[in-house]
Every structure is written in C-alpha cells, then in structure tokens.
C-alpha cells in the first residue's frame, strides 16, 4: 500500500474521531493506544471495547487502521501516526473528556519524541 493511502486511512480515523460524542468509543484513540510505540509501552493492558462503537463506520475505520500492519512494523506505524498528528492544524477549543483524551495522547507522544 502506498504511504499516502496509509496516511489517508489514519487521517480519516482522526477526522472521524473529531465528530464523536464525549463518552463514545473513539477509533483514533483506540488505534493509537494499541499501535503507537509510546502508548503501548505505557499501557500494556489496553483493550478496545467494541461494544461502545455505535456506528458501522467505527468498525470499518478500525479495520482499515489494523490493515496497515500487513506491510508495516510498529515503528513505521508510529511514524505514520506522528505524521498525522503533526499535520493537525487546529487545536481543540473545548475541554470535554473526548478532547482531553486526544490531547493527552498527543502530549505523551510529544514528550517521548
């Protein structure tokens, strides 16, 4: 798979997560928590709660994100995630549980890098 397609898959998951409702499962956070080297080292016990996914699109996007491992290592996936995070232009303007969780993930990744 070409790198730009892989980045597009991750960007769609990220963008989809921005439309989420606080308290709903979040495909982007779930994938980052299991796929980013920094997050897997910090949280070896993370599990994805698929019962909280309320849209078919959640499952489709999560599956597409997992498909990136078909040809990429953890380090390469981490690099792709970092690239998506660096491309984000707009900060979060509200402080609810949903945005706090994404902001926390971004800050942890920035601290380690």
Ordered list of secondary-structure elements with their pairings:
Elements: H1 3-18, H2 27-35, H3 37-42, H4 56-67, H5 74-87, H6 97-112
Helix pairs in contact: 1-4, 1-5, 2-4
Shape: globular
Q: Could you give the distance between the termini?
A: 26 Å
Output the number of helix runs: 6
The oligomeric status of these chains comes to: single chain
Q: Order of helices and strands, N to C?
A: HHHHHH
Q: What is the percent of helical residues?
A: 55-70%
Approximately how much beta-strand content do the residues carry?
A: under 5%
Q: Taking Cα atoms only, what radius of gyration do you get, to the nearest Å?
A: 13 Å
How many separate structural domains? 1
Task: Tell me what the structure shows.
With 113 residues, the chain is an all-alpha fold. It has one domain (3-112). Helices cover 65% and strands 0% of the residues. The protein contains 6 helices and no strands. It has helices at residues 3-18, 27-35, 37-42, 56-67, 74-87, 97-112. Helix 1 runs antiparallel to helix 4 (56-67), helix 1 (3-18) crosses helix 5 (74-87) and helix 2 (27-35) packs parallel to helix 4. The radius of gyration is 13 Å and the shape is globular. Mean pLDDT is 79; it is low at 90-96.
Briefly characterize the structure.
Helix content is 65%, strand content 0%. By secondary structure, the protein is mainly α.
């Amino acid at each position: 798979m070409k790198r730009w397609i892989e980045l597009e898959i991750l960007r769609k998951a990220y963008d989809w997560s921005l439309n989420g409702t606080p308290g709903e499962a979040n495909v982007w956070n779930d994938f980052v928590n299991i796929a980013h080297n920094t997050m897997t080292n910090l949280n070896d016990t993370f599990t994805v709660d698929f019962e909280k996914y309320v849209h078919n699109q959640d499952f489709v996007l999560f599956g597409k994100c997992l498909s990136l491992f078909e040809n990429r290592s953890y380090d390469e996936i981490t690099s792709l995630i970092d690239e998506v995070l660096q491309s984000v232009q707009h900060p979060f303007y509200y402080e609810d549980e949903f945005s706090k969780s994404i902001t926390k993930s971004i800050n942890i990744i920035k601290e380690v890098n």
